[in-house]
Amino acid sequence: MLWYLRHTLAPRLGAGTRVLEIGAAKFAVRHFLAADYLGLATYSALDLRCLTHHRSLPAPHGFVQGSATCLPFASASFDVILCNNTLTYIPQDSDALVEMRRCLQPDGLLMIQTHRHVEPTCSAPAYAARHPELPPSWFAENGDAWVYGPDFFERVHGVGLITRIDVPLAGRDDGFYARYGIKPCMELIVAFRDVAGEARFGLS
């Protein structure tokens, strides 16, 4: 993902642009502030928890305590919203998607990376009942509210978002993948309010 941020997003994020990350992890807070990852954009992290790494964000970047289903921001506030492997932990995931769409600029990009499985989307408790071999740690790692399937995209389209799957590192030589420990087929799910976003954030 850092490669994607550096080569696809950062060149399109100048002074005055804003980036929001929902469910920000320590990894993100450590890396995303560098100009080569998010350009000159101001970075905001939103989480229900106020953890040490959240509080360490220096101005003009900052942490906001809040819920993804009721974002405390004006409409069209952000050029980029990052929500990576977070939706599976949100019971009202459709409400969260509606809020992200509302807060995204018309030409903005929403990264909604998430695990997807072969079975249709269902609640995590229902999936656990069907798969008793999976330990609680599996759901702690993958999501305790939802287990998404191929129909995940129908949920996203249902709130008025356009989706695209990017494979930013396709076509590299084997040595490149081995050096960085990257899977050649690594996919990133991105979404847009409008085709203007697709034009602005075309793959580099």
Features:
204 residues, alpha/beta, seven-stranded mixed β-sheet, two-stranded antiparallel sheet, 9 strands, 32% helix, globular
Task: Give an overview of the whole structure.
The chain is an alpha/beta fold. Helix content is 32%, strand content 21%. A 7-stranded mixed β-sheet has the order 3-2-1-4-5-9-8. Strands 6-7 form a two-stranded antiparallel ribbon. The radius of gyration is 17 Å and the shape is globular.
Tell me the helix content.
25-40%
What assembly state would you assign to the polypeptide chains in this entry?
Answer: single chain
Give the averaged pLDDT, no decimals: 90
Q: Beta-strand percentage?
A: 15-25%
Radius of gyration: 17 Å
The largest pleated sheet is described as: 7 strands, mixed
What's this, in brief?
The chain is an alpha/beta fold and 204 residues long.
Task: Set out the fold topology.
Elements: H1 2-9, E1 18-22, H2 26-31, H3 35-38, E2 42-47, H4 52-55, E3 62-65, E4 78-82, H5 93-103, E5 104-111, E6 122-123, H6 124-130, H7 136-142, E7 146-147, H8 152-157, E8 162-166, H9 174-180, E9 188-192, H10 195-200
Parallel strand pairs: 1-2, 1-4, 2-3, 4-5
Antiparallel strand pairs: 5-9, 6-7, 8-9
